Amino acid sequence: MEKGWIKLHRKILKSALWKDCNMAQKVVLITLLIMANHENNEWIFNGEKYKCKPGQFVTSLKSIQEKAGQDISIMQIRTSLLKFENYGFLTRVATKRSSLITIENWMLYQSDIENITNNQQSNQHSDEHSNQHSEQQSNQQSKDIAKYVANTEFKENKKDEITQQITQQVTQSLTHELTQSLTTNKKIRNKELNNSIKDTMLCPSLNEDGHEKVNMKSQIDQVMAAWNNIDGIQKIIKVSKGTQRYNLLTARINEYGLDKVLECVHGVEHSSFLKGYTSQNGWKADFDWIVKPANFIKILEGKYVDKQSLNDKKSNQNITPVSDKSLKKRDVSNMTQEEIDEFIFD
User: Fold this and answer.
1) Domain map of the chain by residue range?
2) What is the pLDDT of residues 202-249, one digit of tens each?
3) Could you tell me the pTM of the whole model?
4) Is the separation of the CB atoms in 18 and 12 below 8 Å?
5) d(CA 346, CA 331)
6) Class in CATH terms, 10-110
7) Angle between the 135-172 and 174-199 helix axes, to the nearest 10 degrees?
8) Using CA atoms in the order 20, 26, 31, 33, what is the torsion angle rounded to 10 degrees?
9) CB atoms within 10 A of CB 111
């Protein structure tokens, strides 16, 4: 497949598909033609036998990108393949890791003329170096040449006829197809945009074995479980998409990573102030408060952690409310952030 050449007719410049393609889609189109098998191909993979006919090939989005160039994105390749399918340029059968792509009308435009020409040259070469020239062989050669000429003329006429039919069909249904194509492309762009947004909220990256990434929902569930394990803190039931709580939490996960978010939650567990044990009016930090940017970073920096003596005392037991005698009490409901910090470290 990596040797030889392909035929590219100038009529492609007048086709509706070519005119409707942007520069990136035209690069993908030419790349697919070059990647297609020009003859029957068989191979064995993982104990299974696979076959491809001329005009077919098995590939992946990543493989197409490597051959088309890194400037062509995966999203552009997906959009191109769907457009080519809508125009009837190709068909695609997708599997888990690859796709079988079939270029329609491949044999019509990529017929193997070289083999016939080479056979004629071989016969002529053999005749020149052979002393036996039978009349049967000569007649057969003449028949082959006549057949080749007839087939060539037939194919040329057939190509013109098919081209006219295709052009007429495209012209008749152009308005409908363009409207359908625009609607489909819009849906694909919206879907790929949503997938792109979702992909930015996945971690860690896909490894070499192709294992699935840990999605955002799984990370949120771990944070919720850690928070709800803290004694004396108001539990959270859910974190719904589109809410301020969801946006703040996902922003912290994307910015610092899951481990840092869990570290922040454990920091609340070791802070008497954040658990409300030092407040006269019952104030305590809730989940929405800790995921705010300013509060989150202060908890990570340890600004609300109990003094070392209190940590040593509670190192082998769960944190219990601090008595009035050991810590000052003060109403913090009307205090500013700076006053709260001053009160904690006083």
Assistant:
1) 10-110, 216-344
2) 444 444 444 444 689 999 999 999 999 998 888 999 899 999 999 999
3) 0.34
4) yes
5) 15
6) mainly alpha
7) 80
8) 40
9) 16
